[in-house]
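Field notebook, page 375. I keep forgetting to write these up properly, so this time I am using the form the group agreed on. The chain and the ligand, flavin-adenine dinucleotide, are recorded exactly as supplied. Prediction of the bound pose follows.
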Amino acid sequence: MVKKNKWDLIIIGGGLAGLTTALHLSNHNLKICLIEKNSYPNHKVCGEYVSNEILPYLKSLNIDPFSVGAKKIKRFNITNLEGTTLNTNLPLGGFGISRYAFDNLIYEALKFRIEIIFQTVEKIVFQDNSFEVSTQNKKVFNADFVVGAFGKRSNIDSFLKRDFILQKSPWLAVKGHYEFDFPEDTVALHNFNGGYCGLSKIETNAVNACYLTTFKAFKKYGKIDAFQSNEMSKNPFLKEFYNNAKPIFQHPLTISQVSFQRKKPVENHIFMIGDSAGLIHPLCGNGMAMAIRSAQIFSHSFLKAMHKDRFNRGVLEMNYTRLWNIEFGKRLKTGRIIQSLLVNPHSSKIGFSVAKIFPSIIPILIKKTHGSPTK
Ligand SMILES: Cc1cc2nc3c(=O)[nH]c(=O)nc-3n(C[C@H](O)[C@H](O)[C@H](O)COP(=O)(O)OP(=O)(O)OC[C@H]3O[C@@H](n4cnc5c(N)ncnc54)[C@H](O)[C@@H]3O)c2cc1C
């Protein structure tokens, strides 16, 4: 019996990873459905600096972030509590664009090419070599394959009882857009006790300020304003920013329980992409590029496997896991090391002194957390 609502592939989550996968696969004669819980456009907690490594791939998909005003970024500066500043050119460079504009740009290119359903997925069951995906209003969708693109923390992670979701994470993040005089070719990272804050311009000319901090550092103050003016502002650059920047959002966006724990690229036969497969520390400014690159790796592997005379699910799962680990394993490890050095005041001080003497160390570290541009 042919099942109702039967798809070749269901993609769950329409952030950058899910949208890009859908766009890539949309002209390959596949019946694809994307299920996303929110409408477009919408704001997301994110530093909004994107590495140029994914530009050739985006171009191959006819996506041009500069068509909606993305800012070209080629300079990086990093400061510490003492006000010490290190400046460098970014090895690859990048661009500044809000998630509001970026996700929407890909959604607009995709929306008439595949079926997009705005619902929250609650259950994914794999049985008899096929998936049953159920949403909050009891709709059921069937598919041969499911791609998990549901981001860093989702109700589906709880449903699947993934290892990382069972553990608490100490990190929370806050983001807002501001009017402030800031160079458009620069992304800055300002260190403070317990975390760091990224500043860069986006397509509207606003400055995006996004910070990650430990709950321990934040809870002394309990409120965002008090934390920004009393703790973060011990860094003179952040003091200047929060004293003079004019908020554009009525309230900043916040998320908690941001987890950097290891995850598996394939779980319960679901191919995980983007943050669902693993989140790099935001100070590397590379999570979006990794989300898009994982979409590319999955799409290539999937199409290649489908074109073989004898398709084997287990082989595809093994290949994707292997390619994912080759591409991202080292980057995630380097990200973890840099993060632990930067957040600890003692090691951060030593790191800044070393980088003052050997400034070439910064582009080397940046390169280690980034990949090379590929079509
Ligand atoms: C504080 C912070 C700062 C960052 N700064 C940067 C930066 O400057 N540069 C950079 O490159 N990266 C940065 N990142 C990382 C970047 O934001 C992520 O890596 C990127 O968003 C991953 O994209 P994604 O598509 O995997 O996930 P997302 O963009 O989170 O998309 C997941 C989607 O799934 C949907 N979804 C979830 N559950 C369900 C469900 N049950 N049913 C239906 N839909 C569902 C969500 O609504 C969402 O749209 C930062 C991250 C943090 C936390």
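OBSERVATIONS:
- The chain has eleven helices and 17 strands.
- The chain has a mean pLDDT of 93.
FOLLOW-UP: compare against the apo run.
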